[in-house]
Each structure stands twice: as C-alpha cells, then as structure tokens.
Amino acid sequence: MTLPEARAAGRPLVMGVVNVTPDSFSDGGAWFTPEAAVAHGHELVAQGADLLDVGGESTRPGAERPSAEEEQRRVLPVIEELGSLVPVSVDTMRASVAAAALDAGAVLVNDVSGGLADPDMAPLVAARRVPFVAMHWRGHSHDMQARAHYDDVVAEVIAELSARVEALVAAGIRPADIVLDPGFGFAKLAHHNWELLRRLEELTAVGHRVLIGTSRKGFLGLVGRTPDTVRPPLGRDVATAATSLYAAQRGVWAVRVHDVAGTVDALDVADALRASS
Ligand code: PMM
Q1: Which residue's CA is minimally distant from atom 3 of ligand 1?
Q2: 136: which of 44, 58, 113, 210 lies 20 to 30 Å off by Cα?
C-alpha cells in the first residue's frame, strides 16, 4: 500500500483519525478495543478517507504516557488489519513503536514531536525511507501549555520546524519525505492557533508538504461562544470542516480529521465550484 497522490490542486488528502486510546480529548475510549478501532477505520474509509492515522498515545494537555509495550499492544493489531485496506500512518513519538508499525503495514510515520522526543526516530525513518510528518512541538503534554509563549507565533513555528528539517535531513531523511505540521493546540493558545491558520501560506511557502490537524481542537470550541458555553469536542465538526476548506484553498497536502464525512463534503463543495468554471 502506498500513499495516494493528491487528486487535484486545492484538494488535500483526508487523513481519518483512529485513536486506540482510553483518554483522547476528542473521542476518548470510543474505539479502544482493536475490533472497535478497526470497525471505525472501515467506516472512515467508506466516508472517503484517503488514509488513516492510528495512534495509541493520547496527547491531550496533561495526559500521562502509556508504556511503549502498551502503545504497541494498542496499535499493532489495528494497523495489521487496516493496512491492507488503506494507507495507514502511525501516530507515535517512539522509534520502537514506529518500527513495529512499519513492519505491520504502516506507510507513514506521524510524530507530533517531529523527532525530538526520541533520538532513535530520525535514524529509523531515514533507514526505512518512508514519509515523516514533523509537527511543531515544545514538550510533552503534561506541561506543554506553559510553553505557549511567542512574539510572532508564525515566524517562531517556521524557524523551529526549519531547525527540525535540518536535523532530520542530517540524519539521512530525504527532504521530499518530510511533511510539516504547525501543531495546532500543542503549546499554543487559541489566538496562536488562529494566527497560524490565517497565515498558513507562510508555512506552505517553506516548500515542504503541509499537513494540519485542527480537528475538534479547543480553539474551535470557542467559535461564537463564551468561555462558559464552550462547544464540547463532538460539537466542533462543522467548524473543523470550515478550517479544512480554508486550508485546502491555501495548498495544504493533507488534513487530519475525526469527522471524515463532513470534511469530504466541504472539499467536494470546493471541487464543484472549481469544476463549474
Ligand atoms: N493532533 C493530535 C494527535 N496527533 N498529529 C498531527 N500530525 N497533527 C496534529 O495536530 C495532531 C496529531 C491530537 O488530537 P487527537 O488526540 O484528537 O487525535
């Protein structure tokens, strides 16, 4: 199974999220057994997902980390099953989990730490010659929000990601295999997320493929609401589809979403508009 090509300019790939975790902020526990996770993956493919992102560690603010053994136990059976149906990425910060996931059929490594959490990650990805999503990250979830200090969030995220690119290439990863992600919600306050989204073209201009993960994130919960009437995560899918469409129009390569059907609908609207011209 290989990664699909983008269907058209302005039409990003849709990466459906399969969290095999008991505690993710967005859908914690809903797909925690391998059977439920696999069934959910099938459902997302039927809704139009181009690839699936399987993860076994929750990165919500304050989360505790599972052991590497536990993380593998969660994701491997799911990747084995889904990997023959659709291209699968593994969402992990651990090289050992990534290696086992690639052996089980994953074709892409999605590391929210961009290789910073585990020094063995970059050499592993270089040796396997697979695409690698490097997300902007300033530290593990338990205290990441204390690091949300920026003078110019876009310039600093780009500078920190560029430093990652340099280190990853020095480790032997091919530049064309590196996908950049600004890391919405990771060491970011709501206004940082909005500014990153508004100025997304500054990141795509760096020249790497870009993936974004705004899905159900906290800043979307505040849209049209006050802090005491924040939308719960499951009520943020329409807002997520809107951000997907906005990002699509700015040339991102892929959007990582929980509600695949809604984002596919939004992207289909853009396609229909394009086709009418
Ligand atoms: N967000 C989460 C998990 N993995 N991966 C990438 N590349 N980008 C993201 O923004 C991202 C991610 C957290 O969301 P979840 O717990 O609902 O999956």
Answers
A1: 59
A2: 44
What's the pLDDT band for 3 if we cut at 50, 70, 90? Answer: confident
Mutate to test the pocket of ligand 1, among 13, 15, 17 (most ligand atoms within 8 A of CB): 17
Whole-angstrom distance, CA of residue 178 vs CA of residue 162: 11
Phi and psi, residue 127, nearest 5°: -65, -35
Cβ of 256 less than 6 Å from ligand 1: yes
pLDDT tens sequence across 22-38: 876 676 677 788 999 99
CA of 88 to the centre of ligand 1 (A): 15
Give yes or no for residue 184 CB within 6 A of ligand 1. Answer: yes
- Cβ 181 under 6 angstroms from ligand 1: yes
Among the four given CATH numbers 3.40.640.10, 3.20.20.20, 2.60.120.10, 1.10.8.60, the one describing domain 13-276: 3.20.20.20
The residues spanned by each domain of the chain are 13-276
